[in-house]
Amino acid sequence: MSLINIILSVVIVVLAASVILVLYRFIKGPTLPDRVTAIDLITTIVIAIIVVFSIIWKSPNFFDVAMVLSLISFLGSVSFAFYLTKRNK
Amino acid sequence: MMSFHDIFSIFLIIVGTSLMLISSIGIIRLPDFYLRMSAITKAATLGLFLLLIGLSIYFNNLGLTVKSIVIILLILLTNPVGAHAIARAAYMVGTKLWEGNTIDELKDMTDRKNELEKLFEESPQDHVVINELAGLYKKLPEAQGGNMEKAKRMEELL
Asked: Residue B9 needs a FRET pair 20 to 30 A away by CA distance; which of B62, B80, B86, B135 works?
């Protein structure tokens, strides 16, 4: 096992730990905007996890998944912002 | 024996991963929605940027590099815009600021506008009041009482 494989495994473990940390805020978060930003951050971390996994498994097709996910997360946060402003009227 | 190329790219990968870990610690530790927002948007965007750059330098593969650059461009374009939209919506809904916060310029401007509207009803001929009120109507967003038509009417009075 070469050095880069060990480093990529450590990277995956650290990223998974940070997803768990963000999930704490998602469950606890006092307001709805907190939860929306937590989901946004989870999507960014999941993109990084997908990229590292696609390199470990040597299957470059997963990169397209990461590209689509980055667009979807933008759509999600903007539509939640729209819903937040319109909800109370 | 590791070359400079390997050491540099591994350094970038480690820094990127640490930034993403820091941003997820920030979303737990910081006291207020707006502070959390600033921490996670900046740190997570830069972290993903450095991680992808490091990976594409290490593996030196054309397809991987092009796809990484596309992901980086999409993230750099969309993440700040989305964060701005959510923060704006949260302010409109009335999410509370941290109690240690001392500056809220939008609230100061809204208060000044209400004060000036009262002054304008008392003395409609005062040019200083009309001038400042027209400026405020132009600057403020619509949800806080900004209104282009009112601004034009004020300028006609001058």
From this structure: B80
